[in-house]
Amino acid sequence: MKKKKILLINPLRVGRGQSSVQYMATTPLSLPLLASLTPPEFDVTIVDENQGRINFDEDVDLVGITVMLHVAPRSFEIASEFRARGKKVVMGGFFPSLWPAKAEPYVDSIVVGEGEHSWLRLLEDFKNGRPLQRFYRQDSFIDLSEIPMVKKAFMPDAHCYHVETTRGCPYACDYCSVTRFYGNTYRHRPVADVVKQVEQLTDKLIFFVDDNIAGHKEYAKELFRALIPLKISWSGQFTIFTARDTELMDLAGKSGCRFLFTGFETLNTKNLKEMNKAWARPEDYPELIKRVHDAGIGVYGSFMLGFDSDTKDVFQEILTFSETNKVDLALFSALFPIEGSKLYGKLQEENRIFEKDMTRYNGQYATFIPKNMTPEELNQGLLWLWRNFYSKMSIRTRIGHLLKNDKNVMQFSSDNIYTMEQLMVFLNTAFKVAVEDF
């Protein structure tokens, strides 16, 4: 019997700052995970539109699309093209899960929330010729011991491999949609399962996709100890306040952590209180950054701009802070309201949201009227910050300390050995290319 063919798609990212995709993008873990879950009686192909073109005339039976908010319009176009050719189309991911009514007109079915169980039920219906349900939902959050081993064959062109160890986050910041998607949960994958997965992926840098890999300190320490013998290089996301625990940071460095993505978000305590993150203390940032560097780990900081307490001085303030404290990499975003969040409700009530184009809800455009600057001043300030932070002079200022750190030698791919300095130059170059889009 001829196997049915499934095509899984990651839509093209849009908006300013997307040129770096060619340097850094890796297909979202959700697609290789679903492909690995799919029974062998199906043939599965993954197409990441950021890396290659979609053949709309390809002989496929079922199309699955993973969708974030700012790529929703492109996902609608993709779905419409395939449905016009008589193909069944399903969507999953944050956008259709949080706003299913917006996606429903374009698809045959929507997988809402976590998809491990729902995907298998959908495939069972499809295989047996039953009509697809409009929505597939799981009754409860899965036990992370059920996550399959992702096959390396489904990540052949990745610059780095994605691996999952936890889901959810112990915090509930008002600007974030993680808690809305995963609920008020923070779950751990068995350490032995993580180690087994990582052992299959040691030839490239590994990125742990968890929103907060160190949200439970004892679990994180157990995991890091287990990773040490594997001699890998990895990066991940966790709060800078993790650096208060020197043992945890030491274990992270010894286990191969090469840079830490952390959300500074703002240096203003009023802003932190406004976003339900009053527990963060900006005055502690310099010492904590130093501790991360002392553990041999680079700092990749995320900053958001456009809060009610931000003035036009905020751009210079963040640049000065970043250079003074040697923040190795940074991501700068305009605050944007996610429908259903407290921020959205507040701004909508004040009639300050003006942007209707979903492609602009990617952090690189003003989407509402800030209190202490115009939308255009926010846009221009954001551009100024990107350009100055990724200037040659700023790069030398920020990563010069890495020249003296001999232990930061890492294997970034199977045939290239990079020092930390070389890695940071590579990543800075990628982001500098992104700046050219503005």
Descriptive overview:
It is a single chain. It contains 17 helices and 16 strands. By secondary structure, the protein is an alpha/beta fold. It has two domains: 134 residues, 3-Layer(aba) Sandwich (Rossmann fold); 276 residues, tm_1862 like domain (pyruvate-formate lyase- activating enzyme, Alpha-Beta Horseshoe), CATH 3.80.30.20. A six-stranded parallel sheet has the order 2-1-3-4-5-6, with helices on both faces. It is globular and about 65 Å long.
Features:
438 residues, alpha/beta, Rossmann fold, pyruvate-formate lyase- activating enzyme, 6-stranded parallel sheet, 35% helix, 18% strand, globular
What does the secondary structure layout of this molecule look like, with pairings?
Blueprint: E1 4-10, H1 21-24, H2 30-37, E2 42-48, E3 62-66, H3 72-84, E4 88-92, H4 94-98, H5 100-103, E5 109-112, H6 116-127, E6 135-137, E7 161-163, E8 166-168, H7 178-182, E9 186-188, H8 191-199, E10 206-208, H9 217-227, E11 234-237, H10 246-254, E12 257-265, H11 269-274, H12 285-294, E13 298-305, H13 314-324, E14 329-334, H14 342-349, H15 375-389, H16 392-399, E15 409-413, E16 416-419, H17 420-435
Parallel strand pairs: 1-2, 1-3, 3-4, 4-5, 5-6, 7-10, 10-11, 11-12, 12-13, 13-14
Antiparallel strand pairs: 8-9, 15-16
